Sequence to fold (254 residues):
Amino acid sequence: MLEIKNIRCSIIDDDTPILENLSLTIHDGEVHAIMGPNGAGKSTLAKAIMGHYKYQITAGDICIDEESILHLTVDERAKKGLFLCMQDPTVIEGVSNSEFLRTARGSITGEKVNLYTFIKDMETAMKDVQLDSSMLHRSLNQGFSGGEKKKNEILQLKCLKPKYILLDELDSGLDVDSLRIVCDNINQYRHDNPDTSVLIITHYPRILEYLKPDYVHILKDGYIQKSGGIDLAFEVEESGYTNIHAASGDEKSE
Ligand SMILES: Nc1ncnc2c1ncn2[C@@H]1O[C@H](COP(=O)(O)OP(=O)(O)OP(=O)(O)O)[C@@H](O)[C@H]1O
Ligand SMILES: [Mg+2]
Fold:
């Protein structure tokens, strides 16, 4: 279970909160979605959960199975099963995609990764996401198209086998066929690993139609103002965020 307990989050060395009194509980096997206006703090939340060095949690707690992870580094959190599919995947020139994936897998499992098995696994995974196998040997994300970067994030997911998946605008940059392919891969992964929890950050209901969230939350002004089912996503698509307000008496809570 992943729990975000009443957190206050800001950029390091700047006390102005981006998130405040934000709580969210994701039980094993659940799929949650977060929508919200640009700049509301959705990516900040994802990065704070992952332990990004630019963000500080100054109140509240983030727990996995009731144990705080706030003291853990990014790689320690990854070893706990957390994975962030980034809104803007990082380019690392000079580090090949295969080197990166193999090192990451070895670090997560604590075991030496056999090169032959690894390449075979990755080639199968690349076929699954319809990514050309030559991309395994290119520098990480260097010159990848927007959609290729997103597919490469899913390749990482298939390689690292996380338990808690954070998808930050996976759908941005993917064409309609690629979005379906990527979502089919995520659904297959969830089918094979039913304990997996997913947090989808998106602006559009289409990805939610594929991934079928149990809950949809609206993050606005730094906290979750409203929660509901997938209907809430269609409501936002139709009417925007202007009329979404926290229920009175439920200010600044989940
Ligand atoms: N590292 C940073 N330095 C300065 N400001 C930041 C930083 N990270 C986040 N912010 C600010 O915090 C606010 C929330 O940003 P965030 O990226 O979390 O928004 P978002 O909800 O993901 O928006 P979008 O839908 O556009 O992706 C924004 O006003 C942003 O400018
Ligand atoms: Mg964002």
Remarks:
- The mean pLDDT is 94.
- The pocket of magnesium ion (ligand 2) is lined by residues 42-43, 87, 168 (CB under 6 Å).
- The longest strand covers residues 2-11.
